[in-house]
Amino acid sequence: MKQLILGMVLLSVFPAMCQGHKIEVLPSDIQIKTAVLPAPEEKKDGAMVYGYDNSGELVVLRKGTNNLVCIGDNPNKDGINVACYSKKLEPFMARGRELSAKDLAGDEREKIRAKEVASGKLKMPKEPSMMYIYYGKSEDYNTTTGELQNGKFRYVIYTPFATTESTGLPDKPHAPGMPWLMDPGTHRAHIMVGPFD
Question: Can you say whether residue 111 is alpha, beta or left, with left for phi > 0 and alpha for psi between -120 and 50 degrees?
């Protein structure tokens, strides 16, 4: 009998607990303003923007007119983290989102994309392609204006299959803020520039 009562109590409390943790999805205009924060000033107005609908699903909030795609901050994660990248990277990024939606992550996800790149199914850009990232703390973010104080920039330049030999870059930074090559020799080789903390 005690187990039955305990079960009923948990069933009545759990939905209430879940309702208390409902994510706050900001208005589309605020999401867009935040999403384009990393982009160069002259590219902000024309960037395509992904953000979140009221159910927390990633959707297109604005169709773009230039070569940048921006991803809004994920309301399910702590802190603020937004990114903009070259449209040439969209097939690679979109495939990553598809695999993540199937609960595939880390090495498993990368192995699938590597296989698809090798087979020609997934196309990577032949020339270097830029990604701009801006991030910071939730307490420094204004949900009314979409502005982030004390944010930091990080830059990523995708250079598929580049190596330390072909670029002259090290595979780890030797000083704060110096560029270095991550994942050298792979389809997702990229130059990292920015603060790393």
Answer: alpha
Residues forming beta bridges with residue 181, ordered by sequence position: 191
Spatial distance between the Cα atoms of 52 and 56, rounded to a whole number of angstroms: 5
Q: What's the rounded Cα separation, in Å, for the pair 26 and 32?
A: 10
Plot region of 168 (φ>0 → left; ψ -120 to 50 → alpha; else → beta): left
| Predicted confidence pLDDT, tens digits, the chain (197 residues) | 444 343 433 334 333 334 444 578 999 999 999 999 999 999 999 999 999 999 889 999 999 999 999 999 999 899 999 999 999 999 999 999 999 888 888 889 999 999 999 999 999 998 999 999 999 999 999 999 999 999 999 999 999 999 999 999 999 998 888 999 999 999 999 999 987 65
Give exposure, 120-153, as e/b (b: 16+ Cβ within 10 Å): eebebbeeebbbbbbbbeeeebeeeebebeebee
Q: Are 69 and 82 in contact (CB under 8 A)?
A: no
Structure tokens at 1: 């009998």
User: Could you tell me if 132 and 39 are in contact, meaning their C-beta atoms sit under 8 angstroms apart?
Assistant: yes
